[in-house]
Amino acid sequence: MNQANLAGLDGLLDLERRDGVDIRSTLLRVLTDQYVQKPTHTPDDERHYTELALRLIEETDYIARTAVAERLARYPAAPHAIIERLARDIIQVAGPVLQQSPCLTPAELDAIANECGGAHAAVIAARGRAEPVHVEETAAAAAPMRANAQAAELCELFFTANGAERRLILMNLEYATTFAPQLTTSEELTRRLESSALAHNAEGFAREIERALGLSRDQARRVVHDKLGEPIVVVAKALNVPPSVLQRILLFVNPQVGQSVQRVYDLALLYDEITQEAARRLAAIWHDADPPLSRPTSHLHARRREAGEDARAAAHAQERAAAQRDTLQIRRFERPLTGT
Which end of the chain is more exposed for a tag (fewer CB within 10 A), N or C? Predict the structure, then answer.
């Protein structure tokens, strides 16, 4: 994990409670849920999750720590450093790990009993009386339903977060185990996105990302009409839209974002900071949180009508683009924003 990512983790620990919800606790729990869905992990994945989880554990309440302990207690591939940390926590947190975790050796259990005292020793003494659970089988059976619930929770966490919190979520999503799909990108798709934005055609823009990312109609509209603008940056990064095109999209597609030059500048910097992997993982979370319904044949006519509307809007967009660029002095504005 490079220095920029370490700085991002340090910033994550400084977040305060927002609207009664501790974003650190929620992020720790959701990332842990995702981690235990896979029976094994690469050394890099384990190292990244271990470092992030240990930092978050130190800054979360016992309820969140207990939830993590319960999820990792029966998971054979749980990182040993995290299990040891949880096993030495207060008994409410340590209990599930001391009773069930297969990651602790007899010598380690004896040391914990001696160090932590009576309550821990009593749980350890009762260890092994329950029948073992085959984690891989139960996890596989429950995975689809749990994945959708987790995706919905993380989706809401992102959309209700402020700008600083969204940045930190994106900086750390690269190390989550969420599947990052391969997406088809093209110059033609980029042109259609830009044309829709320059024509102030928010609905047309939403339809383009709905098709490109496989989102539901409601989710695509939520991305376009977001007041802060980070979802548009995620779309641009996931679809490999050039930074200069992103700047024009931000200026035109949503007036709440485009009216602030400083906001557009900050979002352009965010584009350079996040990885395409993280952007595509968040796009996958949006998809899983609200999967698009299968569209019946009766909707084909509506699709054709929408395509016609998009084509007509695109035909007029290029004519208006030059005048709009001159009015807002975009050419002068682009130079300091263009990513390297």
Answer: C
